[in-house]
Specification:
Structural class: alpha/beta
Strand order of the largest sheet: 1-2-3-4-5-6-7-8
Strand content: 5-15%
Shape: globular
Bound molecules: flavin-adenine dinucleotide
Length: 284
Amino acid sequence: MFTKLTENENTLSFEVFPPKKDGEFEKAFEVLDALGKLNPDYISVTYGAGGSRAGKTIEIASYIQNTLGIDAMAHMTCVGSKREQLLEVYRELKAHNVTHVLALRGDRPKDMSDEQFMDKDFEHASDMMAFLKENTDLHLAGACYPEKHFESFSMESDLNNLKKKQDAGAEFFISQLFLDNDFYYAFLEKAAKKGITVPICAGIMPITSVKQIGTSITLAGSSVPKAMADILATHGDNPDDMRKAGVDYAIRQIRDLRENGVQHIHLYSMNRPKTTAEIVTGIQ
Ligand code: FAD
């Protein structure tokens, strides 16, 4: 596991996504260069569920690890995937010195055939983790959900499944984004009672445009507290003001987390160095 997560220190990490098109890699590298200057403890790179674009994740993770010299973590999903496909990705990652993987189930992509979906080797992220633990030397992390995963009937059952991920080899967790810290504090308490002992990184996404409410927030199933609803109502029509207010909200959220003893913050950077830099400065 990344050493700073095991020491009694604060960490700040970022999430980035690979470019959608091949021609956009140069721009992506510029974004990474700028994010790298902010000295994150590690950077994680998202993965298209189904694995068809795994090569892009590997290329970006490799740039972070080998060119920027920053610890990289590649996300990896198992929905519709076979064991051999995961091992192929693992071999590529290893060849590029990337040793950490956020092991996820993923969601079925719209264009995945019934045949591929049914022909999978893994049902849950914990199954994938157990397999990777047995067959690779990867360091594994998993996802957790402060407001529970949308498929779970209760927080109780979701936490039981989270414990299965820890037992299967997850060395730490990264949380789904949340906008109300009280959900996170309650989650930490319940997780501890369930026997979750590994570090948990709090996932923070700056809400800098109204559009994100219809995309990221809806997908994540996160609640929108009144303070954020007020920001959207007041600044939603003015992109500049909305961006500033969203950055300020994220800063206040992180400060409150730090004041309440939360050590590990994972910032969904959205590949936006300016916004990320403002937040990094604002929380110092
Ligand atoms: P799981 O841990 O398998 O959980 C999914 C559901 O199944 C939950 O309701 C859980 O309670 C239940 N469950 C788990 N184990 C069991 C079990 N043994 N028995 C019964 N029920 C069980 N998606 C991408 O496609 N690419 C990405 O790069 C990506 N990055 C992400 C990063 C973070 C930090 C987070 C929080 C999510 C990310 N996602 C990504 C989204 C993720 O793939 C979805 O949230 C997906 O729906 C669940 O993935 P999981 O790994 O949490 O699944």
